[in-house]
Amino acid sequence: MTIESRVLAVEALYGQLEKEISEFQSHTKLHCVAGCGKCCTKPDIDASPLEFLPWAFHLFLTGKAEETLEILKERSSTLCLLYNPVSLFGGNNGSCSQYKYRGLICRLFGYGANRDKVGQLRLATCKIIKEGQKENYQKASEEITKELHVPIFTDYYMNLSQIDFRMGNIIVPINDALRMAIEEVLQYYAYRPFPSGLKVTA
Ligand code: SF4
After folding, report:
1. Which one, 107, 138, 192, 196, has the greatest CB density within 10 A?
2. Residue of the nearest CA to atom 5 in ligand 1?
3. Distance from Cα 42 to the centre of ligand 1, integer Å
4. CB of 45 closer than 6 A to ligand 1?
């Protein structure tokens, strides 16, 4: 499968997830607090390289893949490279500098569910939502165990790995996933022509 077709397939999966999340949100009224980037400040976020393939491909098309790869290779912090804090001194405010290209884990967290040991669906969301939107959170938690449809992490990761089993099944710290996604694109085009019809844009 070419890089372009894998990128399109990952983007299609994200499109489907976006629809499911928007239905879930409009039903439950759960929402991220404006300006909050707390979940991106976790130092131990794991992801698969495949979920960042659209981002890496975008970097390649805009001529920024090599320089970003070097930055990632030298980076010692485990905080996601793409996180843009409002303050360098901590706090919850901040945002993703590449929101359009964020990974599957970033999209699912907050509005996706996992199954517990007895197979019951549990919403995976943050303390800020659980405590600040307590009533809606409790109602949503009950409803997903009955009839309310919620995106499920394992289903989405399974669908992702069907696009590219090798890249979709590796789960590594997020900055390694970013690095591996860029390496995949650069290696792919090392001996191939620039993708037809796509121009380098700043
Ligand atoms: S890719 Fe963006 S949304 Fe995902 S953890 Fe990094 S900064 Fe946050």
Report:
1. 107
2. 40
3. 10
4. yes
pTM beyond 0.85: the answer is: yes
pLDDT tens digits for range 62-116: 999 999 999 999 999 999 999 998 865 566 788 999 999 999 999 999 999 999 9
Q: Give the closest residue (by CA) to ligand 1 atom 8.
A: 40
DSSP collapsed to 3 states, the chain: CCHHHHHHHHHHHHHHHHHHHHHHHHHHCCCCCCCECHHHHCCCCEECHHHHHHHHHHHHHCCCHHHHHHHHHHCCCCCCCCEEECCCCCCCEEEECCHHHCCHHHHHCCCEEEECCCCCEEEECCHHHHHHCHHHHHHHHHHHCCCCCCCEHHHHHHHHHHHCHHHHCCCEEHHHHHHHHHHHHHHHHHCCCCCCCCCCCC
Q: Which two tokens stand for residue 17?
A: 């997830």
Structure token pair of residue 125: 């969301």
Using an 8 Å Cβ cutoff, are 28 and 143 in contact?
Answer: yes
Cα 45 to middle of ligand 1, angstroms: 9
